[in-house]
Amino acid sequence: MNRQSLSWKLLCVAFSLVVVLGGWEATALLLNTPALPTPAAALSVCAQYAGAMATDFGISFGRVGISLLLGTLLGTPVGLALGRSKRADELLAPALYILYPIPKIVLLPILLVLLGFGNELKVVLITLTVFFQVVVVMRDAAKGIPEDLVTSVRSLGASRGQLWCHVILPATLPQLFTTLRVSSAVAIAVLFFAEAIAGSTGLGYFIMNSWAMVSYPRMFAGIVALALLGVIFYELFDIIERRLTRWNK
Fold first, then answer.
1. Cystine design at 219: which of 72, 153, 210, 248 (Cβ 3.0–4.6 Å)?
2. Would the pTM of this model clear 0.90, i.e. be above it?
3. What does the pLDDT read at residue 4?
C-alpha cells in the first residue's frame, strides 16, 4: 500500500469516527439519560470496568469464534454439494426452505433441557444459526458458477478433485467471507440472548446483570465491549479474505 492510499484510508477512518461520535454525542445530549452517556464519559466508564470485563470478553470471544468455525466447516460442504448437484438440491431444498427462516433463538428452551446452562448450549445455538446462513449462500454461489467455465476445465483433463480445488472453491470464497461478516453480527446477537437468558458468564450476562443492578455505566461498558467484539470478527474476516482471495481484487 503506497503512502497516498494509506493517507486516504486514514482520512476515511477519521471521517467515519467523527460522524459516529458526533451522532452519539448529539443523541446523548438530546435524550439526556444516564443509560446513554456521552462519548467522553463512556470512555472513562469502559476504562474503569475493563478489568472486570476481561474474563467475560474472553469467554464470549471463544464461544463466537468456535461457533463460527464449526458453522463454516459444516455448512460450506453442504451448501456446495447442494449447489453442484441438481438431484441433491431437489431432494433437500424443501427442507432448507422450511428450516432456514426459523429464528434459531426459539430453540433455546429445547437446548436448555438437552444441554443445560453451559458453554455447549451457546455454541450449539450459534453454530446452528451460522450453519444455515452458510449453506444458503454457498449453495447459491456454487449454482452461479458458469457451466462453460466448468466444462472448459474438464476438457483440459482436470479431475473431480482438481475441479473443486481450482475452480469451485476459489469461485465461491468471496461469497463465503461476505456471509461470515454478516453471520458474525447475527452470531453476537444470538450470543447476547443466550448469555442473558441462560448464562452466568460472558458479556451478555455482564450487561443484563448490570442492568438488573441499575448500574448504567457498567451496563454501557458491556455494550461497548460487545460492539468491539463484533468489530474484531468483522475486521478479522476482512483481513483473511484479502490474504486468501488476492486474485479477486
1. 210
2. no
3. 65
